């Protein structure tokens, strides 16, 4: 029996939405087998990583807080990737948003008011967008690949944190420790559910995704993004400027990453520390693809990724599974998703060979 | 990491029967569950390995009084650690050790939500009713290493790989160079900060760069043996193990090592929690109490140098020698500590200046 991949005349919608689900299921299945083979409780690992965070109500707050930045960054990336603009440096834009926001918070320390948080939000978006403008400028003016520039700028932004927290922004009461002071209360995100750690960033993430979905499906901007990505020649013929699309894609994805950075620094962190970069910007790339570059899908993908993080920690405390296991599960998920993508555009056909070839 | 299937089941059952807030008191016969939160992995052969050894020692000493310790690895210093702390507290751990500096804010925060759980934060400075801090006087070991460096360095130049310029690290650098300059008054040291506790690639790169600039002794205040491996490979005079004996990675280059022996502290804390006598505070023992130990001397170290190093070690144990007794000048040459005056613990714990002989990083 032989199989052949045959190109579908049109991408399969069933497979388009089926493969992410299949990727998650396959990950659990194969993961359980692998971890059993190397001597762990494989079924227990899958249970703790994928199900305990959902069944234990006390973990929901963690899922929300962990998923929020992934969703916000993932939405921005999904818009950019739709337009075939490969912004890999969301981590850097997230950091710049996280740095732009406290700039205001620290300058106005003790003299803030109701306007502090909105101002920080604007600063965060502006910081992320401005940082993404550098790859946009280089790409549109000098035709420099945005994958390289956006990625490399991430490392520069990390050094900027180290510089700021060691010298100009150092906590005057911190005994020399490299961190900023804790922000004043008006510069901290309010908790929206008393008794939990759920901060205002969680509903903001959902709103961002819904607004982005509406814009992408219902506006000329969304249409431009999609058509430039899917059919660049047709887009040019239709009068959409490629350069303008690149600018928009990078500014939107950078701005949203910056917003996520602001929400993180004003929410869970409450001060800038050298440990601020925690790879949300890179993880969000997986989230964007797992969510099928669709803002609504990104919500679910963000939650799935948050489950693996939270579940990974549960598995460490309850069954002693090593931390690397979380990484293995996340990598498997992306692998199965990308491998499964071939089924969207191709179908598997069984072919009966005309002549039996025998050795 | 050493849980077997049976204790897994037990842990599962225990977790399932726990109320959500974990506020149910355990019956006295129940073994104490102790959790450890580490910033790296237990097989880093340095800092985290030292804590894991301490956890093991605690279990061996206390036997059935404590459950098999739970160790959570690779926990970043940020909101992620808050979640891990809560996870440990909710799953019935009544004593939790957070073993990296950056966990501080979050330990305090989670401890407020779990008043019946005892927390101890290594190398920290923030305390509350159920949060104590503990550390070891590593700088006493640095004084021994610095003495060896002063005797053995040919170029009179050492490199020092640090994580962050926090007092704990600055103190170690200062102790090292003060001791070295008692032997060789021209001795200098160049610190490099790599902004992480554990990144073997960065540690090795920093070591290579400094060796290229003419240093022949390397010391580090990061978690693993990467710098020593470079020292071995490049054939410089040598370096020092930090946190644990690292001679397996650099049999010739490791001149000696500072070994952290956290075990007795973990035994005492666990016993105090079991007995109900635990109290908050700051515990900072050193060579004298055996929490800091000097490992075996390397094959390159001549006998007279061993004798000099032992003298410094024993002086600190019997209290006749303190590396931070003046006269001490700062790196610009201005007198900072007058002759005969010794820096207090409070002054050490907020140390943000370098002594003479340190070439401050830009």
Overview of the structural elements:
- The complex is a heterodimer of chains A (359) and B (362).
- By secondary structure, chain A is mostly helical.
- Chain A has helices at 13-37, 42-55, 60-82, 90-107, 116-142, 146-166, 201-218, 220-230, 232-237, 242-269, 280-290, 295-319, 324-340, 342-345; strands at 2-7, 346-351.
- Chain A contains 14 helices and 2 strands.
- Chain A has a two-stranded antiparallel sheet.
- The model of chain A has no long low-confidence stretch (mean pLDDT 87).
- A 6-stranded parallel sheet of chain B has the order 2-1-3-4-5-11, with helices on both faces. Chain B has a 6-stranded mixed sheet with strand order 7-6-8-9-10-12, with helices on both faces.
- The longest helix of chain B has 17 residues, at 167-183.
- Chain B is globular.
- At the A-B interface, helix 3, helix 10 and helix 12 of A face helix 1, strand 2 and helix 3 of B.
List strands and helices in order, with pairings:
The complex is a heterodimer of chains A (359) and B (362).
Chain A (H helix, E strand, L loop, with lengths): L1 E6 L5 H25 L4 H14 L4 H23 L7 H18 L8 H27 L3 H21 L34 H18 L1 H11 L1 H6 L4 H28 L10 H11 L4 H25 L4 H17 L1 H4 E6 L8
Chain B lengths: L4 H13 L16 E4 L9 H16 L7 E3 L6 H12 L4 E4 L5 H10 L4 E5 L8 E4 L3 H15 L4 E6 L4 H17 L4 E6 L6 H13 L4 E4 L5 H9 L3 E6 L10 E7 L2 H13 L6 E2 L8 E3 L8 H16 L9 E2 L5 E3 L7 H5 L13
Parallel strand pairs in B: 1-2, 1-3, 3-4, 4-5, 5-11, 6-7, 6-8, 8-9, 9-10
Antiparallel strand pairs in B: 10-12, 13-14
